[in-house]
């Protein structure tokens, strides 16, 4: 007999008070530890091995910086903002994560999915404010300047800026929405860090994340098609955006700009070829080819000297100012409008950052602190929102490039930020003539990895059909409804799948493996011997209120005996027999003799005298589960069948004790509970 240890009862009140006193105390050492934990750079920077690390960090920083510039300009299309704001975002995110991040390798900055989510909110609010979403409409005067035009695209919107009511144009209002959304997302992330709510990310399974990324990639691709072929269609908003956009594309396909179509075909061919060659010969290349930058430089030169905008009406990026716009506090009224939209943005941003950080920390044998990552990505959103930036996250593609080019620490992030700063201060105006179709090509080619997930569907289906269904549902909802709804649908559907799997789990009768003390599923394995007069039932799930009925139905079906029906039938025939005996009639209601009546009472012999329940897969019981076991104990006892429990874990045993399953004094516990199936079977044989 195994005896349980006696655990010392913990006074939770005292523990909480002790923790509170410790957290409220302030000593110089504690303050130093707090600062070093909050700014991890203070720990690792003094130990930086310059000779060993500097070359790899500089090289990876330069490469990422070169990649960042064209991607930042391109992703501004997704966010519905001017390219300058994307450059601000890339600059500030790298600096702040360098100070606060715990991962040595992840590249934090502008990310396509996050840009898409920001852009959808910006577009919705611009429409509600009465602005025209047509990209080529005459531009509004930005930054709170007064509107003097009466054009449809320059609808004035009142904002309070520095305590003064001013009218804000389209560009000003768009970045105002984006910064308010980013600020709220950062606040949510910091609050989640304070209250240690990082566990929320556990509800985003790999299938949900992959489906969400693939569905969002389809939405991104759809949004870029109009730039590829140079047609003027409004940016679709709301649910079903993907379908509506494709309908508008086919309706206006005759208006396609031949110059943009040819440019797009050439750029995609060059980019895809370069990517494929880079993937094939990456072991021979010291660093990835800067194909995007080469394409942007060549395309800009061709567009400028060929006057593609003036001659062929090809849409171009337009003026990109240099320097920094003065910081501004995000508008509080706008925060209230986008507070709900910021929540999924905060969760997705955090989950992608932490999952990538953990993946590369495991690969390179170091640890990260998920809670500090929450703070880092939160402040990567809060602080830049004052500097006209929008939401950021870690990006897998750029992180892979960083590691492949020798990145050792986040010094590489500072180098990347310096490259972006160089563009911000001096080079930005040179991209005036860059065609938007070139930027769309860069975005679409960057989606290769997410779109290739469709090739993995057969392998995924072969590995796990339920996970494949979760992926398909999440991907479909994200693409056909909206990204936020798709994420919510994916989470809810994956949880429903888990609930359904626990509601209808596998059940089995077990047979004995010959000449051993082990037992397995009789329907799955050959040459198992049935134990005479004993049924062994396995239920492969927790027993709780939602699967109670399924537990009983499965038990009755597999044992071929419903004790309630059997007991009711016996009572019915016993009652009839007594009535006939009182009348002195030796023949029963069925016209049978007394001896024959006994046979009628038991039309089929019960072929077992003991039921062993294998509880090894029952991880927990609720009140309904305990009452269900008490019910079958009582019902089978009325038929002179003993019920024995085997392989219960300690928490299940405690639930049974508290529920009174073993009686008040637990006197019969040793005859009802066994630590192995074989012990229960041997006990049942002895009691026969």
Automatic annotation (TrEMBL):
It comes from the Eukaryota. PROSITE patterns: SLC26A, STAS. It catalyses: nitrate(in) + chloride(out) = nitrate(out) + chloride(in); bromide(in) + chloride(out) = bromide(out) + chloride(in); oxalate(in) + sulfate(out) = oxalate(out) + sulfate(in); sulfate(out) + 2 chloride(in) = sulfate(in) + 2 chloride(out). Pfam families: STAS, Sulfate_transp. It is found in: Apical cell membrane. The chain crosses the membrane at residues 53-75, 95-118, 172-191, 211-229, 334-354, 375-397, 409-427, 471-500. CDD domains: STAS_SulP_like_sulfate_transporter. One of its GO terms (cellular component) is apical plasma membrane. It is a multi-pass membrane protein. Residues 524-684 form the STAS domain. Its main location: membrane. InterPro entries: S04_transporter_CS, SLC26A/SulP_dom, SLC26A/SulP_fam, STAS_dom, STAS_dom_sf. Keywords: Cell membrane, Glycoprotein, Membrane, Phosphoprotein, Transmembrane, Transmembrane helix, Transport. Belongs to the SLC26A/SulP transporter (TC 2.A.53) family. PANTHER family: SULFATE TRANSPORTER. This is Sulfate transporter. The gene is Slc26a1.
């Amino acid at each position: 007999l195994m005896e349980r240890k006696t655990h010392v009862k913990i006074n939770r009140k005292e523990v909480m008070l002790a923790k509170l006193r410790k957290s409220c105390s302030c000593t110089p050492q504690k303050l130093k530890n707090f600062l070093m934990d909050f700014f991890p750079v203070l720990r690792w920077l003094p130990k930086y091995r310059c000779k060993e690390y500097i070359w790899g960090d500089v090289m990876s920083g330069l490469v990422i910086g070169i990649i960042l510039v064209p991607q930042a300009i391109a992703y501004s299309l997704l966010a519905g903002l001017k390219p300058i704001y994307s450059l601000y975002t890339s600059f500030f995110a790298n600096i702040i994560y360098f100070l606060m991040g715990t991962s040595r390798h992840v590249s934090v900055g502008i990310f396509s999915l996050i840009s898409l989510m920001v852009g959808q909110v910006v577009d919705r609010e611009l429409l509600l404010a009465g602005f025209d979403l047509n990209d080529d409409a005459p531009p509004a005067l930005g930054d709170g300047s007064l509107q003097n035009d009466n054009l449809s695209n320059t609808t004035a919107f009142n904002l309070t800026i520095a305590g003064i009511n001013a009218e804000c144009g389209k560009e000003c209002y768009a970045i105002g929405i984006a910064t308010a959304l980013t600020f709220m997302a950062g606040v949510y992330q910091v609050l989640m860090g304070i209250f240690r709510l990082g566990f929320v990310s556990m509800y985003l399974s790999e299938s949900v994340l992959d489906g969400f990324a693939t569905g969002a990639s389809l939405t991104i691709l759809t949004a870029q098609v109009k730039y590829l072929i140079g047609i003027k269609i409004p940016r679709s908003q709301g649910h079903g955006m993907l379908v509506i956009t494709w309908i508008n594309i086919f309706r206006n396909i005759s208006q396609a700009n031949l110059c943009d179509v040819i440019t797009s075909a050439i750029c995609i061919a060059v980019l895809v070829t370069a990517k494929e060659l880079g993937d094939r010969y990456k072991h021979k290349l010291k660093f990835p080819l800067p194909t995007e930058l080469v394409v942007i430089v060549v395309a800009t030169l061709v567009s400028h000297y060929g006057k593609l905008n003036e001659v062929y009406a090809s849409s171009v990026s337009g003026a990109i100012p240099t320097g920094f716009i003065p910081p501004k506090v995000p508008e509080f009224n706008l925060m209230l409008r986008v507070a709900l939209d910021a929540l999924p943005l905060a969760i997705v941003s955090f989950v992608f950052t932490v999952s990538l950080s953990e993946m590369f920390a495991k690969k390179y044998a170091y640890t990260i602190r998920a809670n500090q990552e929450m703070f880092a990505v939160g402040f990567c959103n809060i602080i830049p929102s004052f500097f006209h930036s929008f939401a950021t996250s870690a990006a897998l593609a750029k992180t892979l490039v960083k590691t492949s080019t020798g990145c050792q620490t986040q010094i590489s992030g500072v180098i990347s930020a310096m490259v972006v700063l160089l563009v911000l201060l001096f080079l930005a105006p040179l991209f005036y003539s860059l065609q938007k179709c070139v930027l769309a090509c860069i975005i679409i080619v960057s989606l290769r990895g997410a779109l290739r997930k469709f090739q993995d569907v057969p392998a995924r289906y072969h590995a796990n059909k339920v996970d494949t269904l979760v992926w398909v549902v999440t991907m479909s909802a994200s693409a056909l409804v909206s990204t936020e709804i798709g994420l919510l649908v994916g989470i809810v559907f994956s949880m429903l799948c888990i609930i359904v799997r626990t509601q209808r789990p596998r059940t089995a009768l077990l047979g004995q493996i010959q000449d051993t003390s082990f037992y397995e599923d009789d329907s799955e394995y050959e040459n198992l011997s049935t134990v005479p007069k004993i049924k062994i039932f396995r239920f492969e799930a927790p027993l709780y209120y939602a699967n109670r009925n399924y537990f009983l139905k499965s038990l009755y079906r597999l044992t071929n005996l419903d004790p309630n029906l059997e007991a009711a039938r016996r009572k019915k025939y016993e009652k009839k027999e007594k009535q006939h005996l009182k009348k002195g009639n030796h023949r029963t209601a069925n016209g049978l003799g007394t001896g024959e009546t006994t046979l009628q009472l038991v039309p089929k012999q019960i072929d077992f005298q003991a039921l062993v329940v294998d509880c090894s897969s029952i991880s927990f019981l609720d009140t309904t589960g305990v009452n269900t076991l008490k019910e079958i104990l009582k019902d089978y006892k009325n038929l002179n069948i003993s019920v024995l429990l085997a392989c219960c874990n300690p928490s299940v045993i405690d639930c049974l004790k508290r529920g009174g399953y073993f009686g008040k004094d637990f006197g019969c516990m040793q005859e009802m509970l066994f630590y192995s199936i074989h012990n229960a079977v041997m006990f049942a044989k002895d009691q026969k």
